[in-house]
Amino acid sequence: MPVVRGKEIEVLYSASAIARRNLELAKDIASRDYEDLLVISVLKGSFIFAADLIRAMHDVGLSPEVEFIFISSYGAGTTSGEVKVLRDIDNDVAGRDVLLIDDILESGKTLKFARELMLSRGAKSCSLAVLLDKSVRRKVDLEADYVGFDCPDYFVVGYGMDVAHAFRELPFVGIVKGDA
Ligand code: IMP
Ligand code: MG
After folding, report:
1. Non-local CB neighbours of 2 within 8 Å, separated by 6+ positions
2. Locate the Phosphoribosyltransferase domain: which residues (predicted)?
């Protein structure tokens, strides 16, 4: 088991499994007839997934525009509460096919808020791509269009995701197992 910051990390999804899945997701995305696709990475957690997914999209012939939105879900610790835009996108989404990319779909509050925001601004469509779906935690009626993996109900880190600002740099997704 890898040891990082003195903690053992159990690998849930390896770097190679994620890379294979990203290519499959990119093919699914390419099979839909999006015109004028604008990909929006939801920061911070999705930055590595988005970086890999847009390159997989290139590999299957897509040329999306890329934007970033910084959204924070307030609430204590690891539970999602109120949702707020901390840094908005620079572009107009009116009339465009938007694809929001996030790390995890959990309660659904973050992406429901983000999707409603894009549609209220006149986006022609707003699809959702998430690396992980923790469906047992859902609190609102929302499903993603593209899901990397159905995730068991553990708090996971790595591949962009953190606990208390640590472990974003891991090339895999894992569970922190306590002191090594
Ligand atoms: P929700 O769908 O509004 O509950 O928000 C999901 C967001 O909470 C994700 O984008 C992550 O930033 C964060 N999150 C949820 N579960 C985890 C986890 O297991 N590890 C790290 N971040 C998580
Ligand atoms: Mg997030």
Report:
1. 8, 9, 11, 170, 174
2. 12-162
Q: What is the pLDDT of residues 8-63, one digit of tens each?
A: 999 999 999 999 999 999 999 999 989 889 999 999 999 999 999 999 999 999 99
Cα(61) to centroid(ligand 1), Å: 30
Pocket test for ligand 1, best of 149, 161, 163, 173 (most atoms within 8 A of CB): 161
**Whole-structure pTM value:** 0.95
Write the CATH number of the domain with boundaries 15-151: 3.40.50.2020
Tokens coding 3: 């040891």
Domain range list for the chain: 15-151
Q: What share of the chain is helix, strand, coil (3-state, %, to 5)?
A: 25, 35, 40
